[in-house]
Amino acid sequence: MAKEPTTPPRQPPGLRELKKQQTRQAISDTATGLFLARGFEAVTIAEIAAAAQVAKMTVTNYFPRKEDLALDLREEFVGSLARTVAERAVGESALAALRREFLAAVERRDPVIGFAGPEFTGMIVESPALTARLREFHELRESALAERLAEETAAADGDMTPQAAAAQLGGAHRVLFAETVRRTMAGEDTDSAAGALATAAERVFGFLEPSLAGYAIRES
């Protein structure tokens, strides 16, 4: 039987933590502006530090990898699928929860699923380093989902079912992310792309129903 999430409610950040968040965001915003203006590969960490008026070490403390200065939603992206499964309703399967949340993300034009605008999307597509890092994010997200599914279904050691399910569900999200990028780079307006993506999502998730409609249903 699946357990209810036990994560305590989030507390408002203290002044010190708020200051750290503001510094991190300021560095990321400065870096993104430079990347968009000159290209990811052309900008150095030293230049970012100078523009943000912080020490170079401060930049690397917040962002150990240069790619994460541009892809600064790493934590949200990697944990998104596992979090949705953990928070699914009683009687809801993992597949149903992920489809519901994806369609909600389309409605809000969430950058986590690819709605980042043509300029930013183009910067990623044109950078081998950013493209490679994004692939890593997809892989990490799938692994996190597999771990969550194993916990939610009390899978035995050696049971590959959670990994197989995560591969299918993660693959569906990867395909839909790529479609969002494709439409963005083709110059399609956001509303049109969102409508097409919602239709595509229903079809893609529908393909998975024969194998996953009854898998990882929350019992209580």
Structural features, described:
It holds the Pfam family TetR_N. Keywords: DNA-binding, Transcription, Transcription regulation. This is TetR family transcriptional regulator. InterPro entries: Homeodomain-like_sf, HTH-type_TetR-like_transc_reg, HTH_TetR. With about 220 residues, the protein is mainly α. It folds into 2 domains: about 15-65, Arc Repressor Mutant, subunit A (Orthogonal Bundle); about 75-210, Tetracycline Repressor, domain 2, CATH 1.10.357. The protein has helices at about 15-40, 45-50, 55-60, 65-70, 75-85, 95-105, 120-125, 130-150, 160-185, 190-210. The longest helix is centred in the middle third of the chain and has 25 residues, at about 130-150. Mean pLDDT is about 95; it is low at about 1-5.
Question: Which characteristics define this entry?
Answer:
Arc Repressor Mutant, subunit A, 220 residues, Tetracycline Repressor, domain 2
Provide the number of structural domains: 2
Radius of gyration: 19 Å
The number of distinct β-strands equals 0
Strand content is under 5%
Number of helices: 10
Shape-level CATH architecture of the largest domain: Orthogonal Bundle
Could you write a compact summary of the structure shown?
The protein has 220 residues and is mostly helical. It is built from ten helices and no strands. The protein has helices at residues 15-38, 45-52, 56-62, 67-70, 74-86, 94-107, 118-125, 128-152, 161-185, 190-212.
Could you give the topology of this structure?
Layout: H1 15-38, H2 45-52, H3 56-62, H4 67-70, H5 74-86, H6 94-107, H7 118-125, H8 128-152, H9 161-185, H10 190-212
Keywords: DNA-binding, Transcription, Transcription regulation
InterPro entries: Homeodomain-like_sf, HTH-type_TetR-like_transc_reg, HTH_TetR
Protein name: TetR family transcriptional regulator
